[in-house]
DNA sequence: TCCGATCATGTAATCGGTTGCATCGACGAT
DNA sequence: ATCGTCGATGCAACCGATTACATGATCGGA
C-alpha cells in the first residue's frame, strides 16, 4: 500500500535505481542513459509522482516566488501592471505573490522581503521605507522609493506632464489648471513639476489658484471639480490637466452634472489611459502609459538580476499623448 | 565570521541551548522557562535570525500559500475580488499566489493545483476543467466550474438580471434588450436566463432580435451598440440590460457618439457596479455585486476548510439595484 | 528517605529532494 | 596488455527547521 503522496524513493524503488538517478533523470536528463530515463519515466507515470517543491526549494536555497508590493490591488491601474508581470513570471517558472501595501502593516510587509519567502521583489509603491527592502533583489516599477538603489522601470513623468500642458497651450489655453496626486508621492511631484515648468516655458503662470489637491482617486477628482465650480468664472482655468484618469472621470462627471460642457466650456486631459476612458462621453484625451509593458520589463529585469546579470540602470519607457474628445480651443 | 544567514543552530549556540529549545521558544513559548526564553530572544536579536520558511514548510507539510486562479488579472472586476481575498489571507499568515488563467497554458495551471505548491485554491474562472482541481481544498468564487463539488460563494445571477428587467419594465419599457456575456460562461447563462424569464413574467417577449452577443469586454459593448444602431428605429429595444458594466460603457459611448441621448432615447442598465460608472455621463444604473466581500468570504471559507471545518454549502450574497441616471421611461 | 509526577531540555529522526564524491565498467590510445 | 578517460550510477551528506522520545532535575507526598 502506497503511503500518502509518492516520494522520489517510491519512484526509485519501482524503477530499480537510486533516488539520485531519479532526481537526475527528471531535472537533467542528459546525465542518465536512455534506458534508465525510460524506466524512470515509466515509474513516474505508474506512481503518479509529483515533485515536492518545498523540499527542492530548501535544498536549492530559493523559493521560486517573486513578491509584488502593490498600493491598492483593487486599482485598475496597478492590476494591468500586475498582468504584465504575471505574463513574464509564469513562463519562467516563478510564482507571483501579491501583497497589498494598503491593507497590511509595515511589519507584515517587511516579512515579505525575506529571502526565505521570495527570491525577489517588485515594488510598485514609492512610499515604503527603503531600509527594509535591501535584503534581496529589488526592481522598482512605475513608482520608486527615493533613496533605494535599484533598477527602476518608469516613464518620464515630467516630460509627460509637459506634453499635456503643451497640447493645451497649443490649443490656445492660457490658464491651465492641475489636479495633483497624493502629497509625498514621487509621481505627484514629478507631474506637478512638469506642469509648472511647462507652463512657465510657455509664458503662462502656474498660479497656486490653478493647483488642486488630489489623491489619484475618483472622489478627489470630484472634490477638485467642486473647487473649480466655486471659483469665479473669469479666473478659473479653461483647461485642467489631472494626474490620473480616475480623477479626470470624477472631475468630468461632476462638472457635467453642473451643466458645464466638455470640451466646449472646459478642456480636460487625464493621465494613464485606462481602458475605459476611451469610451466615456466625451472620450478622454490623456497620456498613455504602457502599463502592461512596464510590468513585463520590470519582471524581466528582475529575472535578469536573479540570473546574476546585475544592471542598475533605469529603463524609461515612452509615453504617448492620445488625442480624443475632451480637449478643444477655449471659447472666445 | 558568520556564514550566510544565521540558522537556528547559530541562535542555539549563542543562547547556550539546543536547537529544539530555540524552536520551542519561538513557536510555543509556553514550553520553555522564562530565563531560557529571554536568552533565546536576545540571541535572536543579536544574530538577526529570521526563520527559513522552506524548511519549516517542508517539515509541516504545508506551503503557507493560497492560489487564486483569475481569468484576466487586468480586469478591474476581478482585481477587486482579489483585494478582498488578500485582505483576509495576509492577516491569517498566508501568501496569495495569483495566476492568470488567460496567459498560462492548461498544464501550467494544473501545476498550481499541487499540494506542494499551495495549500488551497480559490477559483474565479468557471471555464477550467474540473478534473485537475480535485487534488486540494477548493473554493469557487463568483464564477464556478459546473461539475466540481466545492463550496461556492456567489450571487443569484438570475434574480439579479430579473431585478434589472423589472426596473425597466416598471418604467414602462416593452422591448428590453440584453447584451450577453461570453458563450459558455456560467454567468452568461444565468443572467441571460434571468432576462428571458423576467421578460416573460412581465408579459414581454424576449425576441432573439433583442439579444446581442458580447464577452464582458468594452469592445463587445461597442459592437452591440452598432448592431442596435443598425436596427430599424421602431423595432429596436428602448432599453438594454448588459451583462457587465464594461460593456455598458462601450455601448453608451458608441450610441452617444451617434447622437442618441441616454436615458431620453435609450435606457441602459449595467452589471457589477465598478467604481467608475458612478461618475460617467450619464451615471450608470446597474446591479451592484459586493465584490470585495465576495473575495473575503471566499477566502474565509477556504481557511475554514484548511482548519478542518468542512462545509460544502453555497454562500449566496445579496445584490442591489443602484438607480442612477441612465434609465428613464421610454419616450411617447 | 524514597517514589512518582511534572517540567525543562537535549538527542536524533524526519520532512523529500539534490549533489559532491566515489565507484565501476567500457573503451580508446599507447 | 596497461593506463587514463569518460559516462553512468550509487552513497551519503546536506538544505534548516520541527517534534517524538528520552533524560534529568525538582518537588510534594507517603
From TrEMBL, chains A, B:
GO terms for molecular function: DNA-binding transcription factor activity; transcription cis-regulatory region binding. InterPro entries: HTH_LacI, LacI/GalR-like_sensor, Lambda_DNA-bd_dom_sf, Peripla_BP_I. Keywords: DNA-binding, Transcription, Transcription regulation. This is LacI family transcriptional regulator. Residues 6-60 form the HTH lacI-type domain. It comes from Gemmobacter aquaticus.
Amino acid at each position: 500500500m502506497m503511503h500518502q503522496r509518492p516520494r522520489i524513493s517510491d519512484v526509485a524503488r519501482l524503477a530499480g535505481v537510486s533516488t539520485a538517478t531519479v532526481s537526475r533523470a527528471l531535472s537533467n536528463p542528459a546525465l542518465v542513459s536512455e534506458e534508465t530515463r525510460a524506466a524512470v519515466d515509466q515509474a513516474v507515470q505508474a506512481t503518479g509522482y509529483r515533485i515536492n517543491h518545498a523540499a527542492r526549494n530548501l535544498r536549492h536555497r530559493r523559493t521560486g516566488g517573486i513578491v509584488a508590493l502593490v498600493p491598492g490591488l483593487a486599482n485598475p491601474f496597478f492590476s494591468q501592471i500586475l498582468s504584465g508581470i504575471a505574463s513574464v513570471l509564469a513562463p519562467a517558472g516563478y510564482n507571483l505573490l501579491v501583497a497589498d501595501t494598503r491593507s497590511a502593516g509595515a511589519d507584515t510587509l517587511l516579512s515579505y522581503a525575506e529571502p526565505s519567502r521570495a527570491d525577489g521583489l517588485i515594488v510598485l509603491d514609492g512610499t515604503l521605507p527603503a531600509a527594509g527592502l535591501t535584503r534581496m533583489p529589488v526592481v522598482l516599477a512605475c513608482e520608486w522609493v527615493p533613496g533605494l538603489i535599484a533598477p527602476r522601470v518608469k516613464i518620464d513623468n515630467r516630460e509627460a506632464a509637459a506634453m499635456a500642458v503643451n497640447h493645451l497651450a497649443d490649443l490656445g489655453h492660457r490658464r491651465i489648471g492641475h489636479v495633483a496626486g497624493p502629497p509625498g508621492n514621487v509621481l505627484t511631484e514629478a507631474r506637478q513639476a512638469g506642469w509648472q515648468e511647462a507652463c512657465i516655458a510657455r509664458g503662462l503662470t502656474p498660479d497656486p489658484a490653478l493647483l488642486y489637491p488630489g489623491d489619484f482617486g475618483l472622489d478627489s477628482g470630484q472634490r477638485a471639480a467642486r473647487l473649480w465650480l466655486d471659483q469665479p468664472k473669469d479666473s478659473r482655468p479653461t483647461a485642467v490637466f489631472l494626474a490620473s484618469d480616475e480623477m479626470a472621470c470624477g472631475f468630468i462627471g461632476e462638472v457635467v452634472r453642473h451643466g458645464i460642457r466638455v470640451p466646449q466650456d472646459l478642456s480636460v486631459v487625464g493621465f494613464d489611459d485606462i481602458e475605459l476612458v476611451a469610451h466615456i462621453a466625451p472620450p478622454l484625451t490623456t497620456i498613455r502609459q504602457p502599463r502592461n509593458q512596464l510590468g513585463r520589463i520590470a519582471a524581466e529585469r528582475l529575472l535578469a538580476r536573479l540570473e546574476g546579470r546585475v544592471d542598475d540602470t533605469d529603463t524609461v519607457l515612452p509615453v504617448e499623448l492620445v488625442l480624443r474628445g475632451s480637449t478643444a480651443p477655449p471659447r472666445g
